[in-house]
Design goal:
mainly beta, four-stranded antiparallel β-sheet
Length: about 120
């Protein structure tokens, strides 16, 4: 079973920065798309950014120019550098990883437990 462990959330003032990390562990043969979603109170979960196995990133319009997604394939880890944070970025952030275990040829999607990001003065 693949497990995802997120870290890096917290409270930050508007204009500040945070870096989220998500490490996948288990009998992982390979990973494909990795990404970050977020869900604010009363709203649906939305895609923030994702990155392909070839490290090609894509961003939601609301975070373009402020957030940067990256990955370390050797560590099965995906990062989200968040700069110029705004109050509207406040949400629980979830990482998502497509992975294949050694024991199967099937790819599955896995979710992290979520980490709270609060942007407030």
């Amino acid at each position: 079973q693949v497990q995802l462990v997120e870290s890096g959330g917290g409270l930050v003032q508007p204009g500040g920065s945070l870096r989220l990390s998500c490490a996948a562990s288990g009998r992982i043969f390979s990973t494909r798309t990795m990404g970050w979603f977020r869900q604010a109170p009363g709203k649906q979960r939305e895609l923030v950014a994702h990155i392909t196995s070839g490290s090609s990133p894509n961003y939601a319009d609301s975070v373009k120019g402020r957030f940067t997604i990256s990955r370390d394939n050797a560590k099965n880890t995906v990062y989200l550098q968040m700069n110029s944070l705004k109050p509207e970025d406040t949400a629980v952030y979830y990482c998502y990883v497509e992975a294949r275990e050694f024991s199967t040829s099937v790819w599955y999607g896995y979710w992290g437990q979520g980490t709270q990001v609060t942007v407030s003065s």
